[in-house]
């Protein structure tokens, strides 16, 4: 049921037009942070107010929405945002990556290959990749304008000097379209290669910081590195304990206080569809049976 | 046969023509003109409030002049007016062909990142992309400014005042600039550390054929380091000439006062 007290997708039309103009500008200048008049949303900052505003601005009645939080469709944040749009826009929702037209995400890119009819909306806490190296906003803007990115390498240098390798594991800086250095939001660096030449449109919204940026489809996205310390995606060296996947990004789950742990796919939809297709991992028996009895999922 | 290097040295590197700067009714700098040649060290001396630092900021393009102009001979040999440079060009000049040594090292250094990264930053800014080579160059420079290379991964906030100042010098010289501005580089250091720093600066300046404009109120520093001296008072240059000439045989009453106010050793 649509809630009649709200406009379609919560935001009023003028606000959506303002956000859409920012999005168009962001698409026209890949990787450039476009300021926009971020609104108060009925959720606290840090819970995805930027992503929600972008989603609200691009959502149409025919869209199918998927929301993930750390790869998972069923955590609090993902469920409440999904419900929010089901209620205020009445759009269809899904957990299947394939079927979604708009995917709002916090900290992951789905494992399934995205296609050209999809839009990926990222929730971004801190859009400025240079923030912790240069505290002055006036200065970082000037550095972006003049493409002065030596400082970004200072951060990577520090990593190698301290840890022997580039230890930045998430929010790994990328250069978009050979021009702007961009923070890909705190996605693990495992996901960085997926942004390169991606058929789907990628939009980034930072609500508290009031910035929107974008990567248009089929845009070159390069992770920064050194010649003698090239970029390497990181993954735990184990198969998924539930579906046996060897190439997905894994979460580490502590199972007892004696050092027991299991590794499972962070992308729940990917893991479940693999299990449904008959793939098994070392620990899949019990949860697999439970699911068959309960039959609530899906 | 024409010696190209000698020919280069015959042309001024930086020319200031009737530079003025006023802040409202206060004229901080009035009608200053001089030429600086490659490899030459020019000291600007005078008491507090005489316009030394304002002049340095005008010369290094950090402040826009109210009148007059500064021209600088770029690496391609063409002299250009600093005011006509775009911001990108000026910043590029600033981190390649120029250096700026601040009195307070915290202003010129990134206190939270390691010494190696501090020295390497300029290299990375001009596109160096090989960690091994950056580190090698950084440790080479630390050796040249007499910092133990074992401390390469320590942040400058763990360094002593003298070490910080030497690190700041290394950070500025790593791109082999031709002109270095120094604002009271020995201020706040104790006498023995000052002596070592001056010694180091003198050898580096000779070795690299650096042109230096150094602002100081310490006449001893001017005497040790510089070839020429300009004495400022109330925003004007009241006396200029060879260092020994000005300091041993001062013409202006104010300069005489300045020189006589040094305690005899």
Automatic annotation (TrEMBL), chain A:
EC numbers on record: 4.7.1.1
GO process annotations (BP): organic phosphonate catabolic process
Catalytic activity: alpha-D-ribose 1-methylphosphonate 5-phosphate + AH2 + S-adenosyl-L-methionine = alpha-D-ribose 1,2-cyclic phosphate 5-phosphate + methane + 5'-deoxyadenosine + L-methionine + A + H(+)
InterPro entries: PhnJ
Pfam families: PhnJ
Keyword 4Fe-4S appears in the UniProt entry: yes
Keywords recorded for this protein, A-Z: 4Fe-4S, Iron, Iron-sulfur, Lyase, Metal-binding, S-adenosyl-L-methionine
Coiled-coil segments on the chain, per record: none
GO molecular function: 4 iron, 4 sulfur cluster binding; alpha-D-ribose 1-methylphosphonate 5-phosphate C-P-lyase activity; metal ion binding
Function, as annotated: Catalyzes the breakage of the C-P bond in alpha-D-ribose 1-methylphosphonate 5-phosphate (PRPn) forming alpha-D-ribose.
Family: Belongs to the PhnJ family.
Protein name per its UniProtKB record: Alpha-D-ribose 1-methylphosphonate 5-phosphate C-P lyase
Organism: Bradyrhizobium shewense
Lineage, broadest ranks: Bacteria, Pseudomonadati, Pseudomonadota, Alphaproteobacteria, Hyphomicrobiales
From TrEMBL, chain B:
Matching Gene3D superfamilies: P-loop containing nucleotide triphosphate hydrolases
ABC transporter domain mapped to chain residues: 14-259
GO biological process: organic phosphonate catabolic process
Keyword Repeat: no
Domain of life: Bacteria
InterPro entries: AAA+_ATPase, ABC_transporter-like_ATP-bd, ABC_transporter-like_CS, P-loop_NTPase, PhnK
Keywords: ATP-binding, Nucleotide-binding
Any one GO MF annotation of this record: ATP binding
Family annotation (Pfam families): ABC_tran
Database matches in NCBIfam families: CP_lyasePhnK (TIGR02323)
Biological function: Involved in beta-(1-->2)glucan export. Transmembrane domains (TMD) form a pore in the inner membrane and the ATP-binding domain (NBD) is responsible for energy generation.
Family assignment from sequence similarity: Belongs to the ABC transporter superfamily.
Name of this protein: Putative phosphonate transport system ATP-binding protein
Organism taxonomic ancestry: Bacteria, Pseudomonadati, Pseudomonadota, Alphaproteobacteria, Hyphomicrobiales
